[in-house]
Amino acid sequence: MPDFYVTKYNGDKELFDPRKLKTNLLKIGTSPDIADLVIGEVAKSVKDGITTREIYGLAYSLLKKHQRPVAIRYSLKKAIADFGPTGFPFEKFVAEMFKAQGYTVDTDRIIKGKCAEHEVDVIAWNDEKLILVEAKFHTDYGMKSDLKVALYIKARFDDLADTKIIIGGKERVMTDGWLVTNTKFSQTAIQYGECQRLNMVGWNYPYGNNLHNMIEKAELIPLTALTVINSAEKKMFLSRGIVLSKNLLDETLLRNLGFADTKIKNIKREVDDLCMHCRRSSDLPRSDLGK
User: Fold this and answer.
1) Which residue among 30, 153, 209, 215 is least crowded, i.e. fewest CB within 10 A of its CB?
2) How far apart are CA 66 and CA 52, in angstroms?
3) Which domain holds residue 32?
4) How confident is the model at residue 59 (pLDDT cuts 50, 70, 90)?
């Protein structure tokens, strides 16, 4: 394979490493034969200076043709960015992440701190913890959440540190503050967060328990990743607070929203292909989601 350089989002250039691409493809379930096919086609189609986003587009098109479920998993980062332009669906998605870990959740609460009122995106609690979450969403998933973001969020949590919050019928105080974003963090933001013991979750941080890992472990596939529903249908679901693919296993919900039996069958087939455990964990029925 001829050597060529790729242009990263920040403008830096690096030598294309087919082993890195193959490792990423295999991680999401691509068969070795298809992974080799994708790498070969990318190598034939590229020119020096091609962007990483262009390589993603080539790989996605090939995966969609040969292994559609894998293609959808490959597109997770873009699928979450497609929650936009508002951050509300991402807040719902983050709430679902905490629910998957056994927490009770609430969203969009106004809480009075020591010096100011704050709109808290997600509150998650169990018997031991009360977690306040700032969900920082970017439609441009190539950018990074920088030091200014970490400083701002840390200041908010400091102001809320001793606030008594009525949750579950009793007064409690925050035990943890979390910053969750759909992008990567800058290195200075990571250094600051680790120094200040700020819980931060981004697309690639922390190692082994980042946003991508959490989505894969809990099989929280966003419905924006589905290929059998169009953009207007995705927006319609999102406007009703429905963000997960597994919620679309509810036939009653889909019929109430006007979907024909054939379309319902196609939706359920794609969701089943994507998520081995969704049918057991979807908490059906969920027809109230469409109200």
Assistant:
1) 209
2) 21
3) 5-74
4) confident
